[in-house]
Amino acid sequence: MKIFIDGEFYAEDQAKISVFDHGLLYGDGVFEGIRAYNGRVFRLIEHIDRLFDSAKAILLTIPLSHEEISEAVLETLRQNQMQDGYIRLVVTRGVGSLGLSPSTCAKGSIIIIASSLQLYPKEFYEEGLKIITASTRRTTPAGLNPSVKSLNYLNNIMAKIEGNLAGVKEVLMLNEEGYVAECTGDNVFVIKNGTLYTPPTYAGGLGGITRQVVLELASEMKLPLKEIEMTRYDVFVSDEMFLTGTGAEIIPVVNVDGRDIGNGKVGTWTKKIIGAYHQLTSTTGAEIF
What we know:
This protein is of the alpha+beta class and 289 residues long. It is 29% helix and 27% strand.
């Protein structure tokens, strides 16, 4: 595996960063998870746009342009002879002092890793996930806005630990007001009486790229859509449920906190959306070679 670090490619065992990098010391940086399918990088422009938005929100200057980073992503895939895979694009604040202030970091650092990723075994896509609600609440937008895809995921990790201890693969996270925000790494959708519902991003969820794709697919399918604040009750009584994310893609949920969603099986609309998503990812995107 060859890894891109600040304009150079390194073998995996030689790919190193400084112990004084503020991305390591303080989680000061931003990232994107991106997927390649069938020789194309899916929604590359949207991912790079979101990266720059996250960086702007934390006053981090990215030392390459949109076009240069896009080409670096494609070249990393070429260097690794990959047509399908997962790309982790990271921008850190860079090397600085042991103090907290970012002003000691002269220049940001860019890291691109191309590898494989499978968040969930195949059977969960066919049979659905059973999840629980975490007691850990989603970080309030007044503290660190979840729209910033930062390197600090400790809030999500604390919730993920609850899931690990309970023996489930994912957990539902609520905001401080008790409304559904998202899961630890995925956006949330439910279907009730033929309408698709998802929490607004101001409730504490990331503006997901896959989330946006599902919104577009729902419009094309003439599936009514509403972005509303949702409680656990709304989840419990839904007919279908699924989660979306670049890594997870679209994965069904069939049970939440011991309550079956609908009849406890993957729903019809969910299957249709999954099929349409797979068709889209296999036929569109920035060509690698």
